[in-house]
Amino acid sequence: xxxxxxxxxxxxxxxxxxxxxxxxxxxxxxxxxxxxxxxxxxxxxxxxxxxxxxxxxxxxxxxxxxxxxxxxxxxxxxxxxxxxxxxxxxxxxxxxxxxxxxxxxxxxxxxxxxxxxxxxxxxxxxxxxxxxxxxxxxxxxxxxxxxxxxxxxxxxxxxxxxxxxxxxxxxxxxxxxxxxxxxxxxxxxxxxxxxxxxxxxxxxxxxxxxxx
Length: 212
What we know:
The protein has 212 residues and is an alpha+beta fold. The protein has 2 domains: 3-52, no CATH class; 63-209, no CATH class. It is built from 9 helices and 9 strands. The chain has helices at residues 3-10, 18-22, 27-38, 63-70, 78-84, 142-152, 162-169, 180-188, 193-206; strands at residues 16-17, 42-46, 49-52, 74-76, 95-99, 104-108, 111-117, 126-130, 136-140. Strands 4-5-7-6 form a 4-stranded mixed β-sheet, with helices on both faces. A 3-stranded antiparallel β-sheet has the order 1-3-2. A hairpin with a 2-residue loop joins β2 and β3. The protein starts with a helix and ends in a 6-residue tail after the last helix.
């Protein structure tokens, strides 16, 4: 198949899984994809998943959408979501997500997509959103992004130094925008006494915002 023919046939797809494009891809099919990739016509996101290159694509998927498609089930959370909500000051380059599957990372031409594991009972507290192209993705609520991050960094928080760690090491900010009850509810999902203590500290820090 010529590339122009391939492009005309699949240009309305934001992503190009080889199973959809070819069914059971042959070695010749994979070699063809490899040549188009070297020519810049395609980008390989991970094994078996491609998208059109910048100059070739009709649809511009967001990295939040791509993160959810690269590894399922997952939702955007942790540093990427915290920065997006203005809860940490640092600009975050990698898209960080939470999954119930094993921790992993994908690096491709569009950046790094990192995934960390939580238990299935804590895999909740996220919202369905659409990006500028109208493509769906899931992102943690602000309080759940905080809970996910704290849980995955518990070993960095010493007893009695919770508030100092949250403000100075983790550099949390704008905590008045958080809702105290959501903090309590989402921290309790992890069934950890240490998380409960930190939830109480965060609740006091966020109470000034007046959100129950």
